[in-house]
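Handoff note, outgoing to incoming analyst
You'll be picking up this chain. Sequence as last confirmed:
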Amino acid sequence: MTGWPDTSASLTVLPLFPVQLLWLNLVTNGIQDVALAFEPGETGVLQRPSRPPQERVFNRLMVERTLVASVVIALVGFGAFCWMIEVSGWSEGKARNSLLLLMVMFEIIHIGNCRSETTSALRLSPFKSPLLLGGAILAFLVHMAAMQIPFMQRMLRVEPVDFVTFASLLGLSFTIFVAMEIHKWWWNIRRIG
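Most recent structure output, in case you need it:
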């Protein structure tokens, strides 16, 4: 015995199972990415100065935006998962189920941020891109259906959540929207100034 506390039980807690990660990519990215490809072009693109030839494909804006989104989703998601288990005393299964729903909501809300690099999502009507709006709604409904259908419940290890949990997760998922709006505002201020 080394005298170290036994942490083997806590190390085996997976926030999401591999099949749930595959499902997350399939239900959100598979449906929404195709719809995003048909997003109408931004107005005023031809009036912008051309990009320098030496600029990389992953320019500073793309790298910053990816980092901000990743950090927000990781911190909020992992923080919520730990809170559910450690503070609320939820089972791993219930916490995992809620985390998966939170990640689906993150992806659905974040797709609205991705419609423009610089324009606020609040200024872009969702009805301007009905295919994207329909894709986001479809992705959400497919996941909600999976939480109700016994075969999908067993395969994905999911179950329906109560209204309070759903509302709390929905509120948490809007943190990505707020973070992206702040970053767009900050980016535009830096670009002008």
